[in-house]
Design brief:
JetB; alpha+beta; DUF4194 domain-containing protein; Arc Repressor Mutant, subunit A; three-stranded antiparallel β-sheet; globular; 2 domains; 205 residues
Length: 205
Amino acid sequence: MRGELPEFREWSIAAVHLLRGVVEAEDGRAWNILLSHRSSVESYFARIGLLLVVDESEGFSYLRQFPEEQLPDGYEALPKLFHATRLSYGQTLLCVLLRDALRRFEEEEVLDERCVVDESELLEIWRTFSPQQVDDVKQIRELQTNLRKLEGMGFVRPFGQEPGSWEVRRILKARVNADELEHLYRQLSAVTGASAPDGAIAELD
């Protein structure tokens, strides 16, 4: 009969959360369900050309498109749900600064579980990559705009009640690894002191 729903499967809770974004260990129930029914969730998304990425040690999971070279015959006809994200100069710079902050945080012996950065500290480094003629007000505005952009991508989120404090989310490690960090840093260094390019300087799949 049309309109009838199939029998409920608990793993569908995790599937819906994944379609909405990153699932983290702190999400509790959704994370535990995902780990318990991982094979079912993997199979479900594989049918529509999506790869489930789970990093238990870091405590996060997300979906991405299967690389085209790994798709069996017929799957190339599927429309893509996710597309590569083209990053502007400012977004690329901020990704590098935040990824480096996360790297340094992990190298230090600290009790905190979260890497939290202060906007004022980011601004000091941001200035070194900005043309000298850009005034402070514009630099602050650009930094805050790009922080909000990366918040929308799930890389950062406001921390606590103090304005200007941002938590760097560990999903950034999966999207910008150590080799990519070094590559992006060289790209940024090549244009330091010049006008920021208008087009994208990096791309995340």
